[in-house]
Design brief:
Elements: H1 2-19, E1 29-40, E2 44-55, H2 58-78, E3 86-100, E4 103-119, H3 125-135, E5 139-146, H4 150-175, E6 179-188, E7 196-199, E8 215-228
Helix pairs in contact: 2-3
């Protein structure tokens, strides 16, 4: 009988212990988001120059395109632009037709060469565009203004976002009569963008008129801290 009572008391004790309130990290944490942002001006550009020609003889058209291309590349080299930043092999050609009274009439050929330039100094942008058009380029197209140090700037913003999160958590904890402890979890809520800004070809004739403006880079983190009394 005594043994049976001992077992019952032991079971009741276990149940009572299981019913006691527990303190977990989840009930003693504060979760906040921190962010940081800055405006950065692009410092590089990737542009494509197109040279288009039409004519009766394909060989003559290609020769004219080659002459224009050679003139543009010669100017780029004078501007200390490395050959590895110039791509000029893309050329296409096809027959050209006119349509008269519903009939297709051959009128010769059309050919196009595209010259792609990685411009690492934006101060050269206007002069290169002017020279390319003067040499006989047809279009300035697909201009992208680029921030070259995007990742490095973003890493700095991440650190600033973490500091911002800590300041917010500290203010909240102080208002509640507590202090911020160690980090429980931290999560990056943003990502490093490859900032590229599309731009249309400028139409002004004066130099130094192509202003790329600035792009906003932003970082955000989510952080949970322990709360200490």
């Amino acid at each position: 009988m005594l043994f049976r009572q001992a077992i019952i008391l032991s079971l009741l004790s276990a149940i009572l212990v299981g019913c006691q309130p527990t303190t977990t990290d989840a009930t003693r944490t504060v979760s906040v988001t921190g962010h940081a942002a800055t405006l950065v001006a692009p410092d590089q550009a990737n542009l494509t120059i197109s040279v288009n020609r039409d004519g009766a003889e394909l060989a003559a058209i290609k020769q004219e395109i080659d002459q224009v291309t050679a003139s543009i590349i010669a100017f780029l080299r004078k501007q200390q632009i490395d050959d590895t930043d110039i791509t000029s092999y893309q050329i296409s050609a096809s027959p050209a037709y006119d349509y008269v009274d519903g009939k297709r009439i051959a009128r010769g050929y059309t050919a196009t060469r595209q010259i792609q330039i990685m411009l690492r100094d934006l101060e050269q942008y206007d002069s290169i565009v002017d020279q390319a058009l003067e040499a006989g380029a047809t279009h300035i197209m697909n201009v992208e203004f680029i921030i070259s140090e995007t990742d490095a700037i973003y890493q700095q913003l991440l650190a600033q976002a973490v500091e911002h999160a800590y300041q917010k958590a500290q203010k909240m904890a102080t208002a509640a009569g507590s202090n911020v402890g160690s980090v429980v979890s931290i999560e990056e809520s943003s990502y490093a963008p490859a900032v590229r800004q599309q731009a249309m070809m400028r139409v002004q004739e004066a130099a130094d008129v192509s202003l790329p403006g600035k792009n906003e880079l932003r970082a955000q983190v989510s952080v949970s801290y322990r709360i200490e009394n």
